[in-house]
Amino acid sequence: MSRAAPVALLLVALLLVALGGCDEPPPVAVEAPADPGRELVLRYECNRCHVLDDVPPADARADCVSCHREIAAGTFDAPADALADWRPHVEPLSHAPSLRGVGRRLRRSWIEQFLLHPHDLRPSLAATMPRLALDPEDAARIASYLAPERPPAPALDAAVADGRALFRARGCAGCHAFTGSGETPTDTPRGADTLAPDLRFTGDRMDAAAVVEQIAEPRRASPDGSMPTLVTDLDDARALAAFVLGAPLEPLAAAAVPERLPVLERPVAFAEVEARVFRRVCWHCHSDPDFALGDGGPGNHGGFGFAPRGLDLSSYQGVLAGGRDEDEQPASIFRRGPDGTPRLVETLLARQREERGEEVPGVRGMPLGLPSLSPEDIQLVETWIAQGRPM
Amino acid sequence: MTKQWMGAALALGVGLCATDAAACENGVEIRVVPITRLVAQGAQALAQEHPARAVDLAGRAIRRIRGSRRSTRNRLLMNRSKRVLALATVRLDGAVDTERFVVAPSLDAAARQLALRWAVGILEYAFDQEHGPIATAEYAEALARFDSQRARARMLLRGLSAGDVMPDAHGYRVLAGLEDDAADRERALAACRQRAGARAAAICAAPAPGDG
Q1: Taking the model in full, what pTM does it have?
Q2: What is the ipTM of this complex?
Q3: B144 at A interface, C-beta within 8 A
Q4: Do B124 and B139 fall into the same domain?
Q5: A interface mutation test: which of B65, B165, B193, B199 has the most A CBs within 10 A?
Q6: What residues pair up with A330 in beta bridges, in sequence order?
Q7: How confident is chain A (391 residues) per 10-residue block, as mean pLDDT?
Q8: Do B87 and B169 fall within a single domain?
Q9: How far is B110 from chain A (nearest CA, A)?
């Protein structure tokens, strides 16, 4: 330090005293009480899939959707051959709707119910909102945080028939399914936008004013959305909204649950089940923490609001060792349910029912929020279990 | 401070603050990080009944980790490598040089006992950390090698069997060797054969009573 330094320090100290800076502690900023809904958004880790207005994104390692998107785009830091191998598998969870501005768009009551009873809203998106371990109170708080109460929107005075004509003229069905309205030849849209919702549910999700804004000013309503501005005339937007909200809808035909296939006659060893089921799907959330920087994933160390269950499905030993129950006791994933079905199979079958709008009490469908396993894959798992779970 | 020194300090700071590369879960880590892959291969070799190969892979991993910087990843992988090495040592009847991490068939009985005691220590540490079924079964398998610990090993393995969380055929094979009652022994052997599948003949050869 030069000889000038002590002089400089002394001058700074004198200046602070002169300004009174050392007489009293600096004022402490009074923090607003934490919003319980925001706390819950963080606890349930909504930011692992969704972008939110005032919630920071999840840590890079925990941000499922961003990570998958990077893999799909080839920008993830991994060898090219690995990216090529992974790319086909990340698609189901490469997109999730942004929740920025969600309060302008969606009804609070609908958000609350959707959190408790999620269903398939977006036909082109393989993943759905997962069925979390939320109780009604938590769901209400999250909905309240995301969507402030709004005054009731006035009814639209536009003609449904005019809106239907505009719907066809503007090619809305190019992105949107509108199941039961007679506007889409199938229940699957032609796929311009993975996140485009089935308009059948619009009346439940949005009020008239929000629908009009979504059509007339999509960027304002959905800052991160990809919906184009297809009408500039407000009367046209109202007419389209009237159609979307008022079109007569055929009742939904209940899709049949796939038939449960009998166990196979041929021998099934773990390697086959591992390749077709455990390593293809399960081990991403039920990992071995030693090989994942200490984090065994939400299905092992906890996450998405779930308590740690200690279930590692990345190896034969891990699968057979099972997890922990609510009392922290070891729990086999092969324990039998009331009808003798092993727990693992119960969860796989439950997912098939969840996809059809049914919830099985006490059983959470797996894979969580992802497409159910095929009947053939479930058959393989059942066969392996029935044969004594050979290695 | 000159620009060069500032640059050097910045580089040092970046180096000190560097975290593990962003990577999620087993699929990415094992594929992208060579040392993780090496340890995982060692664990897999052991699971596939190749304990000598497991010793080789785990030993190589330990040597590489010792030459690397400290990190969460390396600490976890070091512990796992030692577990693999310890269980392989048990399955090789103590014929492992636990200083050089190589298979040593020529070790005498006393040296093998020392190796087995080292293995018990490693697996006991893992058991104390988490008490999960895998750590429990591995620890019990090592304990069963010592007459004074057979009752404890049997108690641990019976617990896993009762809860249907025995992690593999070896646990049942060891339990069969610890059971005094012929019916209990046969039950454990039957479970061993079921789990071992095509490898039943190699893993589940009927043990003599008291042959843990």
Answers
A1: 0.86
A2: 0.88
A3: no
A4: no
A5: B165
A6: A324
A7: 46 41 50 85 96 91 88 92 89 89 94 96 92 96 92 84 94 91 64 84 95 95 91 94 95 90 98 95 92 92 94 97 92 96 98 94 94 97 98 96
A8: no
A9: 32
